[in-house]
Amino acid sequence: MVSVLALAGGAVFAPAAAADEQRAKEYWLDSYGIRDAWKTSQGEGVKVAVIDSGIDASHPDLKGAVVGGTDVSGAGAPNGQRGIGATPEHGTLVATLLAGRGHTEQKGKDKDKDKDEEKPKSSVGAGPDGVIGVAPKAELLAVSTWLGSPNPAGVGIEEQIPAAVRWAVDSGAQVINMSLTSSTTSWPESWDDAFLYAEQNDVVIVAAAGNRAGGTEQSGAPATIPGVLTVAGLSRDGEASQKASAQSIVIGVAAPAEDLIGGMPGGQYANWSGTSGATPLVSGVAALIRSKYPDMSAGQVINRIISTTSDAGVPGHDPIYGFGILDAEAALNADVPAVSGNPLGSIAQWITIHRRGEAAPPSPAPVENNVKEEPAVPEPTTPVAEEPRLEGDVLPGILVVGFGILLLAVLGLGVQQTLRARRLAQAEESS
């Protein structure tokens, strides 16, 4: 059972400046090859499900981005587009980083100017202001969950998470973003079938590693589920974040997690940190890849991301940076050999080994103490040596023969004694 499940944005949200000042703060767009990747793909035609606290689709930077949604908590809006839980703004922050489209900010005299005199639109997104996401032309599915505090509707995480994953798959999601974590590496058995369903339907799942500042020293589920791409956090300088990233052998890739900027409900903005923010950056890259290579399997998409990283820390895979630091342009355009499966494992295989393998064998039928009917004694043969073995309560044939011979000997002796006694008695009578 997952004892604590919470959203992985551990830092306190700080109000940010106006929309027209946000784009310059998105340092990751240039530093991690995202702008270069846009020359090839911007996420067109790809649906990404955001399983989170709900998304405010009315945010100016998300206009037209959210194409559907649901609530699995029983306490949110039916379309998943109202923030709920302990951090209701969380889902909107994640969504803008993933697929924000920006907008054109009009203020003061600009509002009275002719439309032809408006600020020129950006080549990516709807305008030069606000937050632009990694995949600005991807479509979002909002799935609201109640996490971080008791759910007033009484629906537990054991039910919410599998329901959310299944709905996302059935609604056409090709990528699922889960900026949430738990306090344990294990997960409820109720999650198995849902993650297996996503695997069988070729869906990429990206999850947060969790934050040390939030008390997560080691990544918990869903990051630990085989096949899930787990994202660790980096500082602005590209070093492992000391506050915004847990460590774990399951980490696949590292991405920016500090000094982030995202949209808040009501058209506002906030500065924030945490692997909750790093995760949608990687999900966005997965969407770019799926848009460019629509026939590419989920395993190959993940392989492109982790095999084109810039190695950091100790050589090769490590529990801090995973396979390395995200490089969006390389993930999209590098020559990467195809793989036959997901390099991060398979939930199907895990279930076979760990769930079905743990099933207790049926209890053996009680052994009765009654001696079974003795088989007929065979004709004497030359004995052949055999390995020692037990045959229940049936006596070995040689033992039966031995008892028979002993019994005949006793009977013979008894007859002899009886005849001798009779002769002695007769002799006494005749005398």
From TrEMBL:
GO terms (BP aspect): proteolysis
Domain of life: Bacteria
SUPFAM superfamilies reported for this sequence: Subtilisin-like (SSF52743)
InterPro entries linked to this entry: Peptidase_S8/S53_dom, Peptidase_S8/S53_dom_sf, Peptidase_S8_Asp-AS, Peptidase_S8_Ser-AS, Peptidase_S8_subtilisin-like, Peptidase_S8_subtilisin-rel
UniProt-listed Pfam families: Peptidase_S8
Gene Ontology terms for molecular function: serine-type endopeptidase activity
Active site, UniProt feature: D52 (charge relay system), H90 (charge relay system), S276 (charge relay system)
Transmembrane segments: 394-415
Region feature Disordered, mapped onto this chain: 98-131, 358-388
Keywords, comma-separated and alphabetical: Hydrolase, Membrane, Protease, Serine protease, Signal, Transmembrane, Transmembrane helix
Domain Peptidase S8/S53: 43-324
Region forming the signal peptide: 1-18
Ranges of Basic and acidic residues composition bias in the record: 102-121
Annotated family: Belongs to the peptidase S8 family.
Protein name: Subtilase family protein
Lineage: Bacteria, Bacillati, Actinomycetota, Actinomycetes, Micrococcales
